[in-house]
């Protein structure tokens, strides 16, 4: 279907996209569209330009002109009368929209660095987001953006985490915390009314990095906080920021606000996530068109206040390695959150090294603006990450800390690609690691302690555990620990051997390393789940890289029963093995009862 | 020699053009203000000593703070060009009033010298800008015919104004006034009218960034 316009045919999509543009124009955006003088001062501020010298299509002003040309042709009077003279040009075909998609999504992360370097105050990132919104409104977007947006519209969170999986993870994390702290009062309260703090998280934490949940829970518990997590409306991330879809942005933010109001929470604490913080704390009320009647703050500020108020004690010597800090663009450049994380780092780390440039002038991790979900542009993204890699390398740090899950993934990719050998972590992990937990003065009679040891040793008797790992040290360590606790051990060093052994021996549990040469853990996991003979065997994933969990989660098979992050110590291994075996036993009991 | 009547006509036309420009600007502003301003509902974030008002003032003033933005901080020579170019514009416009209405002021040696310096420097910068617009790959790619014409127009106008300061009643002055008339009529329809929007764009971005604690920009010790 097409429409006749000024003697030219215009596709229906192009027509609708223009309608959308006209409906979204406000004074701020129009000011930015008419205010550019084409001085080119913004050019060098963009990480894409710096890594693609000579390619003008990455220059912020050139990219901005794609929308500006349309605006001039359709709205601005000089462009309507003398289009050639002022470079005005509209869109007519679906191909024109596809070209715009490549620029709006594939050549800009909306990091806003050019904005703060524009002498005219042109907010390019804001109208690039508007351009994205125009395209999304007619279904022109990268597939990843469509998938994530769909999940957030339909399931309520951007990774499609089901309610039961979310609650299971919280329960699991609470159990771990209880064991670790040896304190049954350590809980993750769900849907508690009138709590002082309602804690919202990123679904990535549930799927790939549950350790951040247990670390946060530990901090809240140690601070004696009256807190809760909502059973629904818990996702503080918001793909509306990346897709430019204000309706989605408003709906997601509104869900979270409504839940806090329903729970009568006093304060919404937002876990470490740049775009989540910006969306929930700053943009959400604008998108949802409602004033929020409660306080909202980043968990970084909450943790800092706990230390300042003496509610938790930390020992910085537990984080002795040199660390640097990466400012998330959304946190720093769009929300002014840059001093608090530094103050916190100084309190929990021994050797903090500044990165330059920093704060509002920092470079994007290159995974921002939803870039991590757009696999078609991964090559461009990694090429542009050279700027970040150079910044990181210059610090000489071993660990880069950031307050953003998106940045964790973007930086991890950058570090891997440029072989920097650095670790990426978040403040919550460092604070939890530095926590000083008062020891309990428990006196255990000698005979009872002995009974306990026997009981533990017996707990794995008659259990067969298959350990799949390509590292001999891990195989030896796991075998020793589990054998000492009474288990019968099988080992496999590659994927095919693992599947064969599992089918033949029917173990009670499999510990599976994700990162193996040849058939990796993801392949093994799929095979085990697909084969009828092994589909019910509980699997505990072992990984040194939380981001690799996507190798498991992206498969259309039931999720694994547990995860353990490397490095693994004896207590952690035994805790997880027991828990998975107990759960599995409980499930079997349930299924027998229901039969 | 130009007759006083012809010179008077040229001067008057330039001043009438100013009135036309003001009318077109009024219409432009009316059009611009017809777009509703986006509302900010969020509670302030960032450092406690930043406010929307402070952010706006900082944003408006950063034209005079080359250290405030990396883009100007790292290119001090370019910033100097910007300053001279705009001083040239102010001088050129002022001259169109002082020649007919305060010739003794224009003839004062100090004022005369200042006009010469500002207009001469602006003309030189204009030529540099013309070359840059044609040779810099990035700038050329974003330049429209209006961008090229605007910088040519101003550069020639600076040159005419430069000579108009000391050729009372001469051809240069005569052409300068007709050129001023054309310049003033053209400006509202070209990118030269950017200064009309400048206070708005800077005010709004400053207000947002001030509310969010980003403006005034803070930097750690030494920026790379």
Walkthrough of the structure:
The complex is a heterodimer of chains A (595) and B (224). Chain A is α/β, with parallel strands linked by helices. Chain A has four domains: 2-141, Fumarate Reductase Iron-sulfur Protein, Chain B, domain 2 (Orthogonal Bundle); 158-308, Rossmann fold, CATH 3.40.50; 316-434, Rossmann fold (3-Layer(aba) Sandwich); 446-594, Response regulator (Rossmann fold, 3-Layer(aba) Sandwich). Chain A has 29 helices and 15 strands. In chain A, the strands form four sheets. Chain A has a five-stranded parallel beta sheet, with helices on both faces. A four-stranded parallel beta sheet of chain A has the order 4-3-5-6. In chain A, strands 8-7-9-10 form a four-stranded parallel beta sheet, sandwiched between helices. The longest helix of chain A has 25 residues, at 570-594. Chain A is globular, with a radius of gyration of 26 Å. Chain B starts with a helix and ends in a 13-residue tail after the last helix. With 224 residues, chain B is an all-alpha fold. At the A-B interface, helix 2, helix 4, helix 6, helix 16 and helix 18 of A face helix 1, helix 3, helix 7, helix 8 and helix 10 of B.
